[in-house]
């Protein structure tokens, strides 16, 4: 939830149904990603710290299991009423632009780098790589899904370099039925590997 202003500090995951295959949860230390990106692309990181990021997604009315985004606006905002959805979006600092068959959500500018006061260090806290490389479906072009807070496009080569760093530094946690994983959201980023069904991981988010 790095692309919204309010995010949980801790995450509990519980494996109710283990994957047929794949489906691991990779984790990576956020401060290590920041340090490596700062060393390799100092000007880019400086601009990120100055301007933050803007995230844009187009949601259909209903959920779309074939989409990496998945949820439609009704389940995202837990309502069938557009005015209620707009109110709930506004509380998150999100702007909605209604379309014929869905809605465009615009979030930001929002910080891409945060300061972890408990550990006195800066951390990589954004969904830049996930959005740029993965938010692709019939409604969404991932290249347009995320940009600098000043509206400038992100450089593709640096995004993919960051993806390499994430993969190099990550540790993939496999799942078995009954497993519990506690994640410190200030310490690590997490993701989900592709999988063959079935797979059911339950989540509990803690402030």
TrEMBL record:
Q: From the record, give the transmembrane residue ranges.
A: none
- GO molecular function of the protein, one example? oxidoreductase activity
Keyword terms, alphabetized: Oxidoreductase
Tell me any Pfam family this protein matches.
TauD
Domain TauD/TfdA-like stretches: 5-202
Please report the name of this protein according to its UniProt entry: TauD/TfdA-like domain-containing protein
Organism, per UniProt?
Salix koriyanagi
